[in-house]
Specification:
The chain is an alpha+beta fold. It has one domain (about 5-75): GMP Synthetase, Chain A, domain 3 (2-Layer Sandwich). Helices cover about 45% and strands about 30% of the residues. It is built from two helices and three strands. It has helices at about 5-20, 50-65, and strands spanning about 25-30, 35-40, 70-75. The protein has a three-stranded mixed β-sheet with strand order 1-2-3, with helices on one face. Helix 2 (about 50-65) links the parallel strand 2 (about 35-40) and strand 3 (about 70-75). It is globular and about 30 Å long. The N and C termini lie far apart (about 30 Å).
């Protein structure tokens, strides 16, 4: 499986958990070992968004794809 497709698949596994709290996540791109996403819904205003990104989503992604160095929330 292509790396970007694997990342998208992993993000799809995460989405239901964010959806339960009124949030969502959209994959934007993978570039230079960084995953770019857009948080949506309640995640946008959540005070724990950095914790969720780095300690939950990034940790899960790195567990499956160790070459990922970080995750960036982009605001489009």
């Amino acid at each position: 499986m292509e790396l970007e497709e694997k990342i998208k698949s992993l993000i799809e596994e995460i989405r239901p958990y964010l959806n339960m709290d009124g949030g969502d996540i959209e994959f934007i791109k993978y570039e230079d070992h960084f995953v770019y996403v857009k948080l949506k819904g309640h995640c946008v205003e959540c005070m724990d968004q950095d914790f969720t990104l780095k300690n939950s989503i990034l940790a899960m992604l790195q567990n499956e794809i160790p070459e990922i160095e970080g995750i960036v929330n982009v605001e489009l």
